[in-house]
Amino acid sequence: MLFDPGPKESRADLFGRDEELGRISNFLSSSSRLLVIYGIRRIGKTSVLKVALNESRIPYCYIDAKALEGDLSVRRLYGLVSRCLSEVAVRFRLEDVIRRIARSLHGVHVLGSGVDLSIIY
Ligand SMILES: Nc1ncnc2c1ncn2[C@@H]1O[C@H](COP(=O)(O)OP(=O)(O)OP(=O)(O)O)[C@@H](O)[C@H]1O
Ligand SMILES: [Mg+2]
Q: Which of 42, 83, 109, 119 minimizes the number of CB atoms within 10 Å of its CB?
């Protein structure tokens, strides 16, 4: 939606960012590990990232660290990671993969029929 105050998710809604999308797409298909997108507030950083990730079809977990404002705790961070992994499991049908990985990780539990992660620390 054009005037949605949230980040754009599809290229059709994102204007004038083809070059940036191309560069992020090149990054995603390379072996590079770190990408920094910087710019002034509300310039469209999150939007270009989300559109590029959605077009790549790579399963991804998006965590907005702004959600830690006011509660900068490990519990809160783990809560965000849990929620994100649960969403990615459903969205990309990765329940079994995540369940298998979780079995070999200390302190990570997958509960129930969906993926309900509780991280114990
Ligand atoms: N190129 C664009 N085309 C259409 N809408 C855009 C574009 N760039 C930004 N917007 C819109 O502007 C607003 C801010 O975009 P976005 O959240 O992606 O920016 P940001 O740089 O990540 O912001 P912040 O600094 O708050 O993290 C959103 O409503 C988004 O949809
Ligand atoms: Mg942003």
A: 42
